[in-house]
Amino acid sequence: GEDVEQSLFLSVREGDSSVINCTYTDSSSTYLYWYKQEPGAGLQLLTYIFSNMDMKQDQRLTVLLNKKDKHLSLRIADTQTGDSAIYFCAESRKRFGAGTRLTVKP
Amino acid sequence: DVKVTQSSRYLVKRTGEKVFLECVQDMDHENMFWYRQDPGLGLRLIYFSYDVKMKEKGDIPEGYSVSREKKERFSLILESASTNQTSMYLCASSFGPPGEQYFGPGTRLTVT
User: Fold this and answer.
1) How close are the terminal C-alpha atoms of chain B, in Å?
2) pLDDT by residue for chain A (106 residues), tens digit each?
3) Chain B contact present for A88, CB below 8 A
4) Could you identify which of A28, A95, A97, B11 might form a hypothetical disulfide with A6, taking C-beta atoms 3.0 to 4.6 angstroms apart as the criterion?
5) Beta-carbon separation of B105 and A42 below 8 A
């Protein structure tokens, strides 16, 4: 079946870059999304990328899309303790990964 | 300030009860969604509505139904609650993709 997969945990030091990876299977997805969920809070849409793009940059966030390999990544530059959260990738808003828990150590 | 509200933050129901979860948005969005979130499984789409009285099944519609009689309100109904429906339920709304999608705070439902 169709699936979105991502690793469950990532730990980085404050100031380092974080890279969260995601693979998906539905090549017909028009948009791919990244969401953030902070402890005790609802989800918020961080950014999205159109499927005919291969990169999108938004301040500290860089999304890379390799459509051939169906691989999506989210890079957070200069990671701060406030970036500690669970990050979900999703295809088409209908199918989400299990989430990557990012822990940022001071 | 944009808002998606859900009727309850916490709910405890007994097996076999009929359960109503309500979601209201004040942004005039045409799209509304119900997801459930379980540890290690992420979010799974239960139902999606793209207009009043219109609905589409998500990946896990079994045991659930929905109602959208007004644009701002999307209800999730558990016809006969079961313990495997214990979960966090998230409602969301949006305009057409790829625009911003807003989530409610969630309802943590426990079925005993």
Assistant:
1) 37
2) 468 999 999 999 999 999 999 999 887 878 999 999 998 778 899 999 998 889 999 999 999 999 999 999 999 999 999 999 999 999 888 889 999 999 999 9
3) yes
4) A97
5) yes
Cα(A63)–Cα(A86) distance, rounded to whole angstroms?
16
Question: Nearest-CA distance from A31 to chain B in Å?
Answer: 7
Residues of A in contact with B45 (CB under 8 A): 93-95
- Closest by Cβ to B42, choosing from A41, A50, A99: A99
- Residue whose pair of structure tokens reads 């990012």 in the numeric block: A102
**What are residue A19's DSSP bridge partners?**
A75
Q: Which single residue is written with the structure tokens 């999608």?
A: B101
Q: Which one-letter amino acid corresponds to residue A67?
A: K
**DSSP for A18-63, written as a single string:** EEEEEEE--TT-SEEEEEEE-TTS-EEEEEEEETT-SEEEETTEEE
In sequence order, the 6+-apart residues with CB closer than 8 A to the CB of A68 are none
